[in-house]
Automatic annotation (TrEMBL):
TM ranges: 36-57
Keywords, alphabetical: Membrane, Transmembrane, Transmembrane helix
Record's keyword annotation contains Transmembrane: yes
Presence of the UniProt keyword Membrane in the record: yes
Organism: Clostridium bovifaecis
Protein name: RHS repeat-associated core domain-containing protein
């Protein structure tokens, strides 16, 4: 039996945490105090994790470039059907598919947009949102469809998450999007009715 090196008062046996070593035998192995696992975690955190974080942490100029690229994605969202009837025709030809309401929550924010329908091109890149009541393409900065650099079905959706979804959480759909990061998180957790934006 050996006393724990982290505790106890000299001369008072009951103040020591006495325990038996199993494979951490302090005489035969190299862990005399029995605290080597703590040291391993500290070494891994310092040597492995910190450089990875530093390597992937973007600089200010990189963040600004990413933000500009994110907002410019709409320049690729061209050639989409512009009327509700044209979209229905494109769906019937298999060029677009209507997504279920559960995959359209970010396009149903505000009392005038609850019935919006989201459509995605066959390759998953182009999006269009229509209001079936007005039969018009939704182009407001909160609910509009946006171009996806990666389709939602590519590699289990991981590239879509990093290149399309996370930038949306951070910056919204456009510089004119009045929602903020917390509004977008509320929509994720509580649904589109949880966010009230004036005029929407």
């Amino acid at each position: 039996m050996n006393t724990d090196s982290l505790g106890g008062v000299v001369g008072e046996l009951l103040s020591h945490n006495v325990f038996a070593y199993c494979k951490n035998n302090p005489i035969m192995y190299s862990d005399p105090s029995g605290h080597f696992p703590i040291l391993i975690v500290a070494i891994i955190a310092t040597i492995v994790i910190a450089p990875i974080v530093m390597a992937f942490a973007p600089t200010y100029s990189e963040r600004e470039t990413d933000k500009t690229q994110h907002y410019n994605r709409q320049s690729f969202n061209t050639g989409i059907p512009e009327t509700y009837d044209d979209m229905q025709h494109s769906v019937s030809k298999g060029e677009y598919e209507q997504l279920p309401p559960s995959q359209s929550i970010y396009h149903k924010i505000g009392k005038y947009n609850k019935n919006n329908e989201k459509y995605v091109s066959k390759d998953g890149h182009k999006e269009a949102v229509f209001n079936p009541t007005t039969r018009k393409l939704v182009i407001d900065p909160v609910n509009m469809g946006t171009y996806n650099f990666n389709g939602p079905k590519d590699l289990f959706g991981l590239p879509h998450l990093f290149r399309d979804v996370i930038p949306y959480y951070i910056w919204g759909n456009s510089p004119d999007d009045p929602t903020n990061f917390f509004d977008r998180m509320k929509v994720t957790i509580l649904g589109p009715d949880s966010v009230n934006i004036k005029g929407y």
